[in-house]
Amino acid sequence: MTESEAKTRIAQLHFEINRHNVLYYVEARPELSDREYDRLYDELKRLEEQFPSLITPDSPTQRVGGQALKDFRSVAHLKPMMSLDNTYSFDELRDFDGRVRKLLPGELIQYVLEPKVDGCSISVRFENGVMSLGTTRGDGTTGDDITENLRTIRAIPLRLNSLPAGMPSFLEVRGEAYMPVEGFRKLNETRVSHRGMSLSPILVMRQRGPSSNSILRWWRNDRWRRCSTQSG
Fold this sequence. Notes:
- The protein is an alpha+beta fold.
- It is 29% helix and 15% strand.
- It has helices at residues 3-26, 34-50, 90-103, 147-150, 181-189, and strands at residues 74-76, 120-127, 130-136, 142-144, 170-178, 217-220.
- The strands form two sheets. Strands 3-2-5-6 form a four-stranded antiparallel beta sheet.
- Strand 2 and strand 3 form a beta hairpin.
């Protein structure tokens, strides 16, 4: 196989593996068996070993291999990451609704009710469709750069396979990285102690192979947005 042929095949494998990651980890409707998926992954790994110059940061193989970072640099958020407030009474909800209506007189006010996923608040940036930065919420204005750690979570795409018309080239998505119930079951099955575990292991986890961090998920709770500046 020539380098040109390998480049074409690697691009195809990137697309297919990323698509199947979304189908399995995000949409819960896999089309391939584990063995079929592993064949695609192993083919990509062999081609990259044969043509190392074709390895790119967004390759599925770059999710694994090494120690996730434990020391982090601080990153200023382009826009503050606000935290959610809570309430335990209908009176407080009515007060909130009253404040909203006062700020938006004459507007049709509608609310969306959804479960709160309590994990680790994260912000993920994509530049030209490629994941470029991942951070924690921190104090709301400054967070920790955990890009390399978030890259190990297969539910988070390293590259957006397609950008809809009008989608800005510089995007930021915010949400929660969390461990679902089946993730704890897998930990139990492998006899990994998780007493007192929270999502803080995102900051210290060690990568162990292709299936590393397949138990973690990502709940997106903010819209795609165009950022006003690319500094920070």
